[in-house]
Amino acid sequence: MTQQEREELRIFVGKNADYYISKWEEIAENKISWNWAAFFFGLLWFGYRKMYPHAFGFMIFSFILQIIQTKMNTDPLIIGLTNLAISIFIGMFGNYLYYEYAKSKVQEIKSKITDEKNLYIELARQGGASYFTAIGIGLMYLVASSIIEYGMEDKNENFREQKSIDPWSS
Questions:
Q1: Which residues are CB-neighbours of 88 under 8 A, at least 6 positions away?
Q2: What are 11-34's pLDDT values in tens digits?
Q3: 76-111: per-residue pLDDT in tens?
Q4: Which of 35, 85, 108, 110 is deepest in the core (most CB within 10 A)?
Q5: What is the spatial distance between Cα 113 and Cα 122, in angstroms, rounded to a whole number?
Q6: Cα 73 to the chain's mean position, in Å?
Q7: What's the predicted TM-score (pTM) here?
């Protein structure tokens, strides 16, 4: 990584840039580098770091997994282990995914803006971190997940169960 690339990435990343640049220099060989925030917060971390394609891809994957697990009536232990495996994967490869995303965004911005001052302004604007985005994506996920769960309920079965325990019915 050249000094200019390092500086452009530093401006794009914003908060915690030194952490990410040091991790990115480590992962040049094997792509694996542990990120606790990515492990614990997965989807929210993608949103916080403005990695929109990753966030929405993760949501779609999660919704498909939720539908499959609900249809198969998957044991909660298996669901928990699956979620843990996904979290470990994101924790291991989060820094690499962020590096690839940041590099591509910097190149995209550089291809559109040639003036150095405006380039740095645009890098800072499109990069950085956003609590608002993380919260917004998290809320979207909760609402959509709830809709999926509600839509998959067997309403007839619930009705029969309620009717059968009515003490006044004959």
A1: 39
A2: 999 989 999 999 998 887 788 999
A3: 999 999 999 999 999 999 999 999 999 999 999 999
A4: 35
A5: 8
A6: 25
A7: 0.85
